[in-house]
From TrEMBL:
Entry keyword rRNA-binding: no
Protein name per UniProt: glycogen phosphorylase
Reaction equation(s) it catalyzes: [(1->4)-alpha-D-glucosyl](n) + phosphate = [(1->4)-alpha-D-glucosyl](n-1) + alpha-D-glucose 1-phosphate
A Pfam entry, by short name: DUF3417
InterPro entries linked to this entry: Agluc_phsphrylas, Glyco_trans_35, Glycogen/Maltodextrin_Phosph, Glycogen_phosphorylase_DUF3417, Pyridoxal_P_attach_site
EC number: 2.4.1.1
Length: 857
């Protein structure tokens, strides 16, 4: 059956309800939510807080009533005016521009999933939620950003449980007409279509839906249209659902089709300038860079390398996983199949004007049979980053093969630690408190959180209790629904009303279920867990949730293990597994849990954001020092589970870390929570809550993250892109020409000789070391290269650490080669060593390591 949605006709006076429901800003604006609830409170609950559905189902008589209700109309007008003001008022970004900062005129942000709200279920987990939070914070800050992705007919799967606790998946079919989307149309009203060529000389066409996320338009491509054959209609059927062939089609559509959608959007609307910066949120949309090269090659006459230089300048790539299996890789023949000519020719039919060899080389890795989307991202983006400091470091190690000869620390991959959108994730109780303390609309600002430190302990504790109480109600509601689905009858479910206790310390653990997240670590010693749950005086209750990838039976077995444990009669009132983890459930967990547990296998959690959302609600993190927690744990804002780093035997490592977890709960977490003053307030606990809100609040905000991207990545990328493009692409041509010259000459560049003028056997720190190097430049000019002294601590194996570098001046030539000189202050005490190296040097390089070229003596 095919579903469709008929939208109701609103009375003229209520027309603003339509625009309020069409902009997802309502999802982080409580007054708008309250307004919708007033329309029909019971229906609002029934439709799962979905304004579009609400307006579709509310009886016309009720609408007529509201159209004559002065109170309602006043609130409606205020909400409409507030939205208009939100969309128009200059924000942080405009102030940056006013202060003369050179910010990009437009930014395109590509992601395979976007979790903006549960009413637009177009995400599977952390990556999508992060992308959604990025758009919302970009909107709050006024960035001229446009999001690009795919619209999946079934989104990600919905999870339920069988009677024996096995995950089962179902795929609802969403009707775009019933979602908060509008179609991108041409001036004659017909849908704007983008097409990409696929093998068999066919066109894969897609229409473009626009979700309006505050100020930010999100373009979602949808291939389910009559012009496509059955196979091609299915390209956007599901998120992460198919085989490699299905997936590469999705990524071709998202990347290449995505750029074409942006061009169509700017052509039709003329509102957003053409983006200067393209940000690839993970490598999935990496083909977008190849499409932009094609555009330049076919419209400006640049050759491939010149176009690549221009594209690289304006591209930012963010890598999101240190798990090798999480990196997107395709068989090279599959990529060749999609990109070559109809009979395997080198000339690409998908990207006419480009050759397959050049495209394949962009994703090459050491294994010649593999095309690696992360390598593609790194080669296409002049700037790249990981998503926490630790992950940045791990990524530099993971990808250092692309920069041979460089110290891992010099690999040009930086980091921007993820953040979360406070107005979406903080309970309205906190937002109200922050607004009271700091003034309205300041929760996305650090100040609102810092001021929470002045709230009296009793108020903090009352808020925590309220939120825990709401969670208990929600747990019972969901547990009952789950048992009914598993085949129980209402009559058997009386016990569910006694599940969880609003006064018991509540621990949450919810996340996807890949192995490294170790869902079942808490079950390592079942007896010990049982005694924690059942302790007479200081019990703990545990809520667990998470989806396993449909193809991952191992993950499903882990879920089953938890479910079977939680089903046991003696503990079922203290531990629950709730199926179908999504944004609507997650919210209650972050609000209500006292402790947020995270026990990944370090360092495989790139950042993790659920703990940040918990922290914004006064939840205390109990976590392995991985991802964000590795840099933000300060000893007073939660607990660090000690890791058995270096223990190779995984069983033993799990035993050790599980045991450390139980011990922390028994000795530290529980005693603190149950230690009460005369008024029943756990003073020492509340001190940690206060410290968490005030200290972590400002750091975990998505607004901090988006500002970091804007200042550290988008602005420099825009500047580089402008330099590449100006004067008929003079910069791009110069850089490409330079790269050719350098690569040709590099094999003959040599550091022939290094002399120091009488270094004393022992010298004092700060003393000057005078060095002269003779370098043979293989025909390059001295200005083409950077000759550097590298000085640092010498280790046992003759490697340098804690290095610092000093450039050397060109002072002439002699019989040996070009002469370079420097005087270097000795930077540290102890065993010190130095060397001299030669690096490329060009104004348009972001770092001297960029080309992966270095010559050492
Ligand atoms: C925040 C969030 C995630 C990501 O959490 P991690 O800590 O990165 O595992 C996943 N799913 C939902 C619904 C979320 O809200």
């Amino acid at each position: 059956m095919r579903r469709f949605t008929v939208r109701a006709h609103l009375p003229e006076r209520l027309a603003a309800l339509e625009s309020l429901s069409a902009n997802l800003r309502w999802s982080w604006h409580p007054p708008a939510q309250d307004l919708f609830a007033t329309v029909d409170p019971a229906l609002w609950e029934h439709v799962g807080h979905d304004p579009v559905r609400l307006l579709g189902e509310v009886p016309p008589s009720r609408l007529d009533e509201l159209a004559a209700d002065p109170d309602f109309l006043e609130r409606l007008d205020a909400a409409a005016a507030d939205l208009d003001d939100y969309l128009a008022r200059p924000r942080w970004y405009q102030h940056q521009q006013d202060r003369g900062h050179d910010m990009p005129a437009g930014i395109a942000y590509f992601s395979m999933e976007f979790g903006v709200s549960e009413v637009l279920p177009n995400y599977s987990g952390g990556l999508g939620i992060l992308a959604g939070d990025h758009l919302k914070a970009a909107s709050d800050l006024g960035l001229p950003l446009v999001g690009i992705g795919l619209l999946y007919r079934s989104g990600y799967f919905r999870q339920s449980l069988t009677a024996d606790g096995w995950q089962s998946e179902h795929y609802p079919s969403y009707d775009p007409q019933g979602l908060p989307l509008r179609l991108l149309t041409e001036s004659d009203g017909s849908p704007a279509l983008v097409t990409v060529t696929v093998p068999g000389n066919r066109d894969l066409a897609a229409r473009v839906w626009i979700a309006q996320v505050g100020r930010v338009p999100l373009l979602l491509l949808d291939s389910d249209i009559p012009g496509n054959d059955e196979e091609l209609r299915g390209v956007t059927d599901r998120l992460y659902g198919g085989d490699q062939d299905h997936r590469i089609k999705q990524e071709i559509l998202a990347g290449i089709g995505g750029v074409r959608a942006v061009r169509a959007f700017t052509r039709i609307h003329g509102l957003l300038p053409d983006p200067e910066v393209f940000h690839m949120n993970e490598g999935h949309a990496g083909f977008s860079g190849a499409e932009r090269i094609r555009e330049l090659v076919t419209t400006t006459g640049l050759d491939f390398d010149e176009a690549l230089s221009a594209v690289r300048a304006g591209t930012v790539f963010t890598t999101h996983t240190p798990v090798p299996a999480g990196i997107d890789r395709f068989p090279i023949d599959l990529v060749r199949h999609y990109f070559s000519g109809p009979n395997g020719e080198n000339e690409s039919s998908l990207l006419p004007g480009l050759t397959v060899d050049r495209i394949l080389a962009l994703g090459r890795e050491t294994d010649p049979h593999v095309f690696n989307m992360a390598h593609l991202g790194l080669r296409l983006g002049q700037r790249s980053n990981g998503v926490s400091r630790l992950h940045g470091r791990v990524s530099r190690g993971m990808f250092d093969g692309l920069w041979p000869g460089f110290d891992t620390a010099e690999v040009p991959i930086g980091s921007v630690t993820n953040g979360v959108h406070a107005p979406t994730w903080a309970a309205r109780e906190w937002i109200a408190l922050a607004n009271r303390m700091a003034g309205p609309d300041r929760v996305e600002e650090a100040r609102g959180w810092e001021l929470l430190q002045t709230v009296p302990s009793q108020d903090l504790w009352d808020t925590r209790n309220t939120l825990r109480g709401q969670l208990v109600t929600e747990v019972r509601r969901r547990l009952r629904a789950s048992w009914l689905e598993r085949g129980a009858t209402s009559a058997e479910l009386g016990w569910v009303d006694g599940v969880f206790d609003p006064d018991v310390l509540t621990v949450g653990f919810a996340r996807r279920v890949p192995t490294y997240k170790r869902l079942t670590l808490m079950l390592r010693d079942e007896n010990r867990l049982r005694s924690l749950l059942l302790d007479e005086n200081r019990p703990v209750q545990l809520v667990v949730a998470g989806k396993s990838h449909p193809a991952d039976d191992g993950g499903k077995a882990l879920i089953q293990q938890v479910v079977r444990f939680a089903d046991r009669h003696d503990v079922r009132h203290r531990i629950v597994f709730l199926p179908d983890y999504d944004m609507s459930m997650a919210r209650f967990l972050y609000w209500g849990c006292d402790v947020w547990l995270n026990n990944p296998l370090r360092p495989l959690e790139a950042c993790g954001t659920s703990g940040m959302k918990s922290a914004l609600n006064g939840g205390l993190n109990l976590s392995i020092l991985d991802g964000w927690w590795d840099e933000m744990y300060d000893g007073g804002n939660g607990w660090a589970i000690p890791t058995a780093d270096g223990v190779v035997d995984e069983q033993r490592r799990d035993d050790l870390e599980a045991s450390a977890l139980y011990e922390l709960l028994e000795r530290s977490v529980l005693p603190r929570f149950y230690d009460r003053d005369a008024d029943g307030v756990p003073t020492r606990w509340i001190e940690m809550v206060r410290h968490t809100l005030e200290n972590l609040g400002p750091k975990v905000l998505a607004s901090r993250m988006v500002r970091d991207y804007a200042v550290q990545y988008y602005a420099p990328a825009a500047e580089a892109a402008r330099a590449a493009v100006a004067d008929e692409y003079a910069g791009a041509k110069a850089l490409a020409g330079y790269r050719h010259r350098i690569e040709a000459a590099w094999p003959s560049v040599r550091v022939a000789q290094v002399d120091s003028d009488g270094l004393p056997e022992s010298a004092e720190i700060g003393a000057l070391l005078a060095l002269t190097a003779h370098v043979q430049l293989g025909g390059l000019n001295p200005a083409d290269v950077l000759v550097q002294v590298v000085i640092g601590r010498v280790g046992a194996d003759d490697t340098l650490s804690d290095i610092s570098t000093t450039p050397m001046r060109h002072t002439g030539t002699d019989g040996v080669g070009d002469v370079f000189e420097a005087e270097v202050p000795l930077p540290l005490a102890g065993a010190v060593g130095y060397t001299v190296r030669v690096l490329p040097q060009h104004d348009l390089l972001a770092t001297p390591a960029e080309l992966g070229l270095v010559v050492l003596p």
